[in-house]
């Protein structure tokens, strides 16, 4: 179904509002953009980096760059959500020495405290800001400026909610062992990582670990490592690191394996990756 609403500003921000009848599962995916996911209706459980969030209407998820995530549909109930993806450059002019607009994204552990509850969203009138973001004339010359002013207000409101509740649990379910494994993998992407290593380090049978990992994340350990390494490769390429050096910097022993994995996950080769950076890099269907 076509989106009710869609807005894009260059390659720095896109926002879309969709309603659909779930007919298939979405795969685990990862962005190099920040994501604000506003859940409106449906029967959805959301997996983020080993944490499981059972969503209620008007719950909101904050998803940092590099956090693998996936919606799981528990039934065919109509699904409606509003999603904003943005790069930090979009709001950089409004960052100050004393106030970080990205606080609610960056002051969290991986896969934890992603959820802002519906009650807090309503108490702080965040839902009204979403209405303002979607309810003005897009033919007007001031449209981009209006959108940005509302969006800055939205980030401030989300920071305020996050600051109040970040020390409490917000109905997330996660396995502490898997959380430890996830953090270890992310800290050692530049090294060789094997199931045997993980088995010995975390004192858990590697076959049971694979089962537990897939159950909690929706993805295999091997695919998780691949996604995270390719995300890191993108960062290095943007920073100007030669393609020939990137593979070894992220733990690949040979370039051919890196090349195949990069192309499988991005759709382009490492050398051609930088060319389409002006295009949006998000999955708008989820």
How helix-rich are the residues, as a percent range?
Answer: 25-40%
CATH superfamily of the largest domain: Regulatory protein AraC
Distance between the termini: 12 Å
Number of helices: 10
Average pLDDT score: 87
Strand order of the largest sheet: 1-2-8-3-6-9
Top-tier CATH class of the largest domain: Mainly Beta
Order of helices and strands: EEEEEEEEHEHHHEHHHHHH
Shape: globular
Percent strand equals 15-25%
Task: Give the helices and strands, then pairings.
Blueprint: E1 5-9, E2 13-20, E3 34-41, E4 44-48, E5 51-54, E6 60-63, E7 69-73, E8 79-86, H1 103-106, E9 115-116, H2 118-123, H3 126-134, H4 143-165, E10 172-174, H5 176-187, H6 195-202, H7 206-217, H8 221-238, H9 243-249, H10 255-266
Antiparallel strand pairs: 1-2, 2-8, 3-6, 3-8, 4-5, 4-7, 5-10, 6-9
What does this structure look like?
The structure is a single chain. The relative contact order is 0.14. A hairpin with a 2-residue loop joins strand 4 and strand 5 (51-54). This protein has helices spanning 103-106, 118-123, 126-134, 143-165, 176-187, 195-202, 206-217, 221-238, 243-249, 255-266, and strands spanning 5-9, 13-20, 34-41, 44-48, 51-54, 60-63, 69-73, 79-86, 115-116, 172-174. Helices cover 39% and strands 18% of the residues. It has a six-stranded antiparallel β-sheet. It has two domains: 5-172, Jelly Rolls (Sandwich); 175-266, Arc Repressor Mutant, subunit A. Mean pLDDT is 87; it is low at 277-282. The chain contains ten helices and ten strands.
Question: Summary?
Answer:
With 286 residues, the protein is α+β, with helices and mostly antiparallel strands. The chain contains ten helices and ten strands.
